[in-house]
Amino acid sequence: MELVKKKIRTNMLGKTVVDQFMIDDDYNVPDSKNDVGRVVSGEGTIKIEEIKRVENYLRVTGKLYFKALYVTDEGEPRLSSLDGKMPFEEMIYMEEETEGEYVVQVGRVEFTASVIHSRKLSLKAVVELTVHTERGADEETTVDVDSGKTLYKKQRPLELLQLHTNKRDIYRIKEEITIPGTKENIGTLLWTDVSSRKMDTKLGQDALFIRGELLVFCFYESQDGKTDWVEQVVPYEGRVECMGADESLYHHVYDQLGDINVEVRMDEDGEMRALGVEATLDLRILIYEEENIEILEDVYALDEECMPQKRPTVYEELIMQNHSKCKVTEQLNLPELKEEILQICHTGGSLQVEHMEVVPEGIQIDGVLHVNFLYVKANDAVPFDMWSGMIPFSYLLESGKTCDDMRYDITYAVEQLSVGLSGSDEVEIKAVLTFKSFLRSPVNTQVITDLEFHPFDENEMSQRPGIVGYIVKDGDDLWSLAKKYYTTMDGIMEINGLTSEDLKEGDKILIFKENMSIL
Questions:
Q1: List of residues 6+ apart from 407 with CB closer than 8 A
Q2: Quick one: 14 exposed, middle or buried, by C-beta within 10 A (0-12, 13-18, 19+)?
Q3: Distance between CA atoms of 477 and 482, rounded to whole angstroms?
Q4: Who's near 293: CB < 8 A, 6+ residues apart?
Q5: DSSP string, 298-358
Q6: How far is CA 97 from CA 10, 82, 200, 345, in A?
Q7: Which residues are bridge partners to 228 per DSSP?
Q8: Sign of CA dihedral 475, 479, 484, 487
Q9: For the segment 118-158, what is each residue's pLDDT rounded down to a tens digit?
Q10: Tell me: the pLDDT tens digits for 213-224?
Q11: Three-class SS string for 136-195?
Q12: What's the pLDDT tens digit per position in 165-180?
């Protein structure tokens, strides 16, 4: 006797740990930079460099990269900027060591820079990290049994998700833009903001195809000392190798834009009117395929006792892969800026999801949209300033099917964002938020690992009736009745003239032992 088995590759996830820590340090302004009078805006990003298990902790090391736009405090006030980096080390307590690769994702980084004095800044960043382990595992499931014995087998058809690919990759973006002819030549870059918009992926033959846009904003001082800005959309597209992939498979991609660099270049005429834009997309790519299989659920014999040995196993089936959008519109009254905003130069934003919960209609997502905008104000000395705020949002990601233990991968981004003046102290904020979801439900089943055979107890068998009149109860099925009374499904159907395997509660049927003859 031999069990026929098939391997199903699954993605095993460990427990998720959320860690929050603070980076707090003083920063001396470099000698090459002007004295700092007032910080207009600051931004910080985290780059993880090493992850290492140390006893019951996970040591995460890396750097905080920061930049600040400020008003100088010497001579005639003007805008200037500085940037730098600070190392960090965080020890995250992990309850127990689990197999697999550690996946550390950076959540929101709340960065602030404040002036201690003109040559020293206080830098603070609140960082949130999420950590879990994942590993690919080949789970063997029994689909049949080869045996010289006469066995009756019950098989359960399933449509399961199988992990095809789990990989990390980096897609490099290198583009160049030329500023419009109405703009001044670039002297010094003061502030840049590069964000990813409308990033989309699709599978093709042996590849993942990527397409999206970079929204590039550059705030600069011209060679004549004038302040100007330029904002352009830079499209990009390319591919990442994924051997064995094709259009029939499913996928979900976690992406993070990093290593952003914007530099001034000469155009074809030798003037400083071009900008080189470089960035990387750090990708975590999960590819799945659906497979129809019939697992061996139960076995019995009529001439001896057959005892299947089982173990519990959990597989996954697909509920939904979907891209959806949520519109957010908010009218804000800003009395502190009354009569001050003359023009909005640039708008930036990011999403912070605070809560996700499975509800009967789908997944309820609540969070805040962080918004900031750089504007021209009525001040002849330094006519620019930055406003920052947040808008709460609530969105129901609808799903035709849900379950309490539903598993999901959800990524989100700001696709469109605009801020318009609607009065002397009012602004209207409009945003389109995108949610890419990959929803699965667990399939709990018992996998047969072995079959044990034992002779029947002859005394017990002799006491069992050869004919049973049975009234069908709720939950009964032909298989269970045939196995219980040592007969076959075909035998019950033939004797009772049944044309379907379906039984109704209250039906009256006769059940004969298989070795009994009808007189």
A1: 316, 439, 440, 441, 442
A2: buried
A3: 9
A4: 6, 8, 141, 143, 157, 158, 160
A5: EEE-SSSEEEEEEEEEEEEEEEEEEEEEEEEEEEEE-GGGTTTEEEEEEEEEEEEEEEEEE
A6: 20, 42, 36, 50
A7: 220
A8: positive
A9: 999 999 999 999 999 988 888 889 999 998 888 999 999 99
A10: 999 999 999 988
A11: EEEEEEEEEEECCCCCEEEEEEEEEEEEEEEEEEEEEEEEEEECCCCCCCEEEEEEEEEE
A12: 999 999 999 999 999 9
CB-based contact 201:316 (threshold 8 Å): no
Side chain identity at 21, as an amino acid letter? F
Task: Please give the Cα distance from 112 to 120 (Å, whole number).
Answer: 14
User: Locate tokens 């019951």: which residue?
Assistant: 56
Those residues whose C-beta lies under 8 Å from the C-beta of residue 414, and which sit 6 or more positions away, are 195, 197, 349, 350, 351, 369, 431, 432, 433, 434
Determine the Cα–Cα distance for residues 237 and 286; give it in Å rounded to an integer. Answer: 20
Dihedral angle sign, alpha carbons of residues 323, 326, 327, 330 = negative
Token output for 306: 């057959």
3-state class percentages of the chain: helix first, strand second, coil last, to nearest 5: 5, 70, 25
Cα–Cα separations (whole angstroms), residue 357 to 32, 35, 37, 353, 404: 51, 49, 46, 11, 9
- The span from the CA of 27 to the CA of 123, in Å, is 7
Query: Can you tell me which residue has the tokens 């939950």?
Result: 475
Written as one letter, the residue type at 151 is: L
Which residue, 392, 393, 395, is CA-closest to 363?
Answer: 395
Whole-angstrom distance, CA of residue 390 vs CA of residue 144: 58
Token representation of residue 359: 């509800």
Interval 118-129: pLDDT, tens: 999 999 999 999
Residue with tokens 């007032």: 38
CA distances to 28, 41, 82, 377, 401 from 79, in Å: 18, 11, 11, 14, 55
Give SS3 for 474: coil
Contact 456, 462 (CB under 8 A): no
- Give the C-alpha separation, 240 to 212, whole Å: 14
Phi-psi category of residue 85: left, alpha or beta, with phi > 0 → left and psi -120 to 50 → alpha: beta
For 428-435, what is the mean pLDDT?
96
